[in-house]
Amino acid sequence: MRGPARFRSMQTGWRWYEIVFWAAAFAMLVLAPSRLLLLNEIAIFALLALSLDLILGFAGIVSLGHAAFFGVGAYTAGLLAKHFSEHALLGDPTIGLGIAALTAAIIGFASSFLVLRGSDLTRLMVTLGVALIVQEIANRLDWITGGADGLQGVLPRPVLGAFEFDLYGRTAATYSLVVLFIAFVVARQVVHAPFGLGLKAIRDNRLRAEAIGIPVNRRLIAIYTLAAALAGMAGALLAQTTQFASLDMLDFQRSAEALLMLVIGGAGNLFGGLLGAIVFAIAHDVLKGITAQYWQFWLGLSLIILVLFARGGLTGLLRLLYRRVRPEAAP
Amino acid sequence: MLTILLDGVAYGMLLFVLAVGLCVTMGLMNFINLAHGAFAMAGGYVTILLMQRAGLSFYLCLPLAFLVTAAAGLVLERTLYVRLYDKSHLDQVLFSLGLVFMAMAGVDYVMGGNQQIIQLPPELRGRLQVPGGSIGVYRLFIIAICGVLPLGLQQALTRTRFGSRLRAAVDDRRVARGLGIDVAKLFALTFAFGSGLAGLGGALGAEVLGLDPTFPVKFMIYFLIVVSVGGATTITGPFFASILLGIADVAGKYYVPAIGGFIIYTVMVVVLIWRPAGLFVKAAR
Fold it and tell me: From the list A126, A256, A311, which residue is nearest B272 (CB)?
């Protein structure tokens, strides 16, 4: 193998730390049977952060409205589980997950045309505007969505007809983790393919990317749609495993939290979102126990500190350490 | 009809005072400051505190709200904002979001999460009959104050040395610096002034817009609309954008309450698609 093919295989080969990470993640299912609900939450947050990483870290689109897709996925899956709980096919969580991803993807595709043009400012306003519109729609359609009270009576059937959701979250955590892993593999393939390299080129210099023949708009539409689908899946997982969907899943704060996870972990390398979600969920769990009401304060403080002092996030830190240990290897 | 129009104008003028500082921040330093609403909120709460705890009169509280938030703006600009001017837009967004969340939680902690009520002086309450409708005296008061402000600002921008320096720096920061204009100092002062205006707007608007800890996020989108629709190069652009937005929002919520909430978002998205640089910006730029 020579040239581009060799480069690609070097990029796509699984590294030891990736294998260790995923082995550890699945081992947690057995090792921490009392914290499975937290593990489930982490997996869902990680999927949301991963999807945001695709558009922010790889394509360079600053989005303040990623919660829109999360919420759409959550409501789609929630409504399916509510109204088709007798139906063997439509009531199945995996089918619900697929339909939720599809719905979110459609909305992502439709709104992707709005983020093609303009500066960072217009993009973040448009994404914010779309999220606000979606939230307002969900609020108005209260005979469908339950409005401010949230969607009650979500009763998902057993996953694949065999695995009943239990009180301890064993099924939930396993299910979410498997979905996250599949999504990760897909995202990994996408970003290491020429498609993903093209995205990075667009992010770094749109004009040059255009000049060497990358179809910029098509690429951006595709990745935005994919990211929306993944975020929709994350929302669907949350609705199915917590048996609830509410307006705050569409809230601005949700989008900001996804950004925070990505900043904690470091954007633009897939693992950042995962690590960020772990730290975020654990911090959330601990701080909520101390001061439930003022969680926002810590959210804000950590954003400021991270931006000012630790812009690379955890993955940036790890990379720095790795270079220190093995200066000749530049990952 | 006239009532709605006048209410819309008052509302729009309020938005202008709230957002004009942001226009300069974004235009001059190309800095995306989502925390602008936090300054407005600060102004509102300063007024509440001074009136309730210190028993000062409403008229005295307005300039104090301006001064306190301007001072806060100056301190934050010198200590924190200044580190982020040459960072990416994403960093600026994250940083200012952090400020917003801290401000919201901080206010919630100190003042509680419920809606604050401003006790207006008796002569500002009540309504005035005008041919074709009626208008609250307080709205008239807002229109008067907020009508004088843009005139003053326009004069300051076009007639004074500070104004011409500021315009030069907005047009081309590097050249302005090359001509010996201390852009950093200019910007710190402008930032403080803009924050002060936001504080004044927050104090004036507490009665009309409502004041609770979610204020910065609730109105963030409005400020952003004013800036992006009005552009950052003139006073008149944001002014007309604010008035338009105010009237559209009030009229929309009155005539078609079912979809009133959507109108401004939809208008914003359409305008941004149609004219990404703003509605009142010369096309040549």
Answer: A126
Distance from C-alpha of B177 to C-alpha of A188, rounded to nearest angstrom: 46
ipTM exceeds 0.90: no
pLDDT in tens, B111-164: 877 877 777 887 777 777 777 677 788 888 888 888 888 888 888 888 888 888
Instruction: Confirm whether A62 is domain-assigned.
Output: yes
Report the gap between the CA of B1 and the closest CA in chain A (Å): 26
Q: Residue B232's pLDDT band (boundaries 50, 70, 90)?
A: low
In this prediction, residue B285 has a pLDDT band, given cuts at 50, 70 and 90, of very low
Could you tell me if residue A267 is inside a domain? no
Residue of B nearest to A129 (CA): B265
Mean pLDDT across chain A:
85
More confident residue, B62 or B120: B62
Contacts of A102-106 spanning 24+ positions with Cβ under 8 A = A102/A229, A102/A232, A103/A72, A103/A73, A103/A76, A103/A232, A104/A69, A104/A70, A104/A72, A104/A73, A104/A76, A104/A228, A104/A229, A104/A231, A104/A232, A104/A233, A104/A235, A105/A225, A105/A226, A105/A228, A105/A229, A105/A232
Q: Are B276 and A252 inside 8 Å of each other by CB?
A: no
Range of the domain at A76: 3-251
CB–CB contacts below 8 A, A to B: 118
Nearest residue in B to A312, CA atom: B91
pLDDT of residue B283: 43
Number of domains in chain A: 1
**Residue at A83 is within a domain:** yes
**What does the longest C-alpha to C-alpha distance in chain A come to?**
62
In terms of CA atoms, which chain A residue is nearest residue B113? A293
Interchain CB distance below 8 Å, B268 and A133: no
Residue A268 lies in a domain: no
